[in-house]
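ugh ok so i messed up the first submission bc i forgot one of the chains. this is the corrected input, ALL of the components this time, i swear. 804 residues overall. if the numbers dont match what u have on ur side tell me asap before i send this to the collaborators (the ones from the other lab, u know who)
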Amino acid sequence: MKNKLFNISPDRSKYPTIGKDGKPEIDLSSGKFVKIWQGPNHPGVTGNMSLELTVSGDEVVDAKTHVGYLHRGFEKLFERRKYIQCFPTSIRMCVPEADSNEYCLAVGTEKLAGIDVPDRAKWLRMLTLEMSRLQMLLRIVPGQGGTMGLGIGVQWGMYLRDLILDRFEELTGGRIYHMYILPGGVRGGLPEGFETRLEENLKDIEKFVHRIDNVLYQNAVFRKRAMGVGYLDPSWVDEYGVVGSNARAAGFKRDVRKDNPYLFYEQLDWEVPIKTESDIYTRARIRWYDLQVTIDLIRQILAKIPKTGDVRAKTPNVMHWKIPAGQTYVKSESSRGEFGFFMVSDGTDKPRRINLRGPSYTHAVPLLERMLINTNIADVGALMVSLQTCPPEIER
Amino acid sequence: MKEILERINQQFNCSAHEHQPENLSWVQLDKKQLVPLLSYLKHTENFSHFVLLTAVDWIENNEFQLNYLLTNHELHQDIAIRVMIPRDEPEMITAHHLWQQIATYQREINEMYGINFPNSPRVNESFLLEGWEGIPPMRREFDTKKYSEETFFPRPRQEGKDPQTHMKQKLYPDEE
Amino acid sequence: MSEETKHNNQPENTEESNKFPKEHLQKRTVYSPDGEKIEIDPLQDYYLQDRPERRDPRYRVVEKFLNWARSESLWILGFGTGCGSIELPPLTTPRFDAFRFGIAMRPTPRQSNVFIISGYMSIKTLKRAIRSYEQMPDPKYVVALGSCTINGGMYFDSYNTINRLDKYMPVDVYIAGCMPRPEALIAGFNKLKQRIKEGRAEGANEYVQRFDEYKANQKQIIKDWNMPDYNW
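and heres the new structure output, hopefully the right one now
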């Protein structure tokens, strides 16, 4: 006879039973399942979103993502704003990496209006895009350790990110939101001595790159918890539209900078890092390689940037600028993957429709719902950070 | 890419054309031909990556425009499929069986534009809004400023110059 | 609002409890895997049914000392409601070092006494923010970050974000800017400390006094109000 006192863990081999449609049958009234809301007020959730988890023991059997907590109706607001007024609004669509928004909107406007951008402005755009990617990676690389209780890397990363934000402040005047890239070019050239100061910061960051390798990637606890957990099946990559570092960790060489080169990325010498294990550890590792590639790219850009020349092409008076009718799709590579703007103009001074397709849209909603099943509840936060879900670009 | 477009034109009797500098092609199609074309592009022409589904409201033509964007990762080419549906009966055939992720897009469009996708999973669940009543917000006739002024409490404007006329007088005094 | 109307507007508990059609708020019986029978009445188990009460200074002599102590331990609720929350992590790093002001991040409302509304509030977040705010123990303070909490800022014409935060919950300190820099945040916290020391940070008491007014405003925009009025 079973001793009821010591029978702490019930026999879970029989449930959840698989129903006729191949999905587990979940009957909440049976008492075998518990529904847990993770978020929006939860430290383990990336940003302001929430997960509705049905758990059996500590294993997730069903998951739903709830978004919309940051919905501001940007795409409606654009209909009321002139093209130049869209810029300060658009950069708030993805908060941690705001320059991709500006870049895509500026290039889309230029394509519709048929404006050529001076070479120096293109180089400066590349510099800001790479710096923006660098500060995002400095947030996310140690952040992966932060989800597993390793806070030291987060402190280092935040400190170094602040140094890059200082350079941004010098260049553009703003820490997070820059409004530096405008249709026709950029707002200004590099300040005096900017290159040397940025180079000093890059040296600091390089030291950090080697330290974080020892502290995070060689850490026994991190390896044990991250290796083999959160497996992204390569067959899901096309099914769910996975892009960026998540696809690169699954063995797909996907980088818009290489595939459809924009600006002057063809003139730079670099390789796309690829791995095939496709678990949390590999995705974190890919970002570590990305960090090194980004530092290398910034150095190459700084060496090649022209010292003189125009930074902005002449545009008509922006308050009365009527963009010819047309439709276009612009994409760029953000730190999370392909970042695209679908723009429709109807020939007036206000855009008809601007639609943002952020990589998190599929990563955080259909893919995450699929991947959470059979995950231990303690790994949910780590899984979300490893997919780099960013709520503001899902709900806009 | 040209051969692919010619094959599409022959098979589906439409006018696909290239938009060269952006590696982007456009196809305009009838509503019923959409799912066969998507299936053809996915399985035969290797457009395996579904990028986005979005809607545009053309209220003056009484039409909704639906855009399906696909990418071929071997040729690095994009193809955008444009489908016009009448505004009076906003209903579209679902395509979620080809790519799982389309169900999410359809859920958003159903909420934002009121376009129905029968048989799409969870399509009637709210996605971004909660407890929304009235016309879907992304439709052209919905006035967001009026709604905001009626619903929320706008802080009264400070006494002083009107920024729009003041800037105009200061920056562009000659223009109308 | 006069005393009489206030009394009339006061909702009755019996009516309130019948108003929730939501399944998870109904009474039910569940069985544990071991066969144990558990009866659940969510509204009785999870929520208190009393109206909030005003917190008056009890120890008048030592109240100054208590206020000083309160001002030196500001524990922030780590709920990033908007984009301003991206400037909160740098505050905890050695560069800005908010710990020297006694500021620390806490994961749950039950342990914190400062609620930072970091930017715009969509209606869906406002609902959660109100619940989090009400669950915080007294004395509690609200710091509103950014222009969007003052007058709507960038999103003044948006259909899903509120324009003025002070219509829905009492605000002690506003920090203007879009977004405010970490230095501005520290200056704002110092201002809040000063107010607490002077005994002027009475947001929680104001919420109790004008409770019906706040609830009416909240219910006006939160269309699917499926939670109890009092959930502390």
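quick check: The beta strands of chain C are 28-31, 37-40, 74-77, 103-106, 114-118, 141-145, 173-175. that seems consistent at least. Chain C touches chain A through 43 residues (CB under 8 Å).
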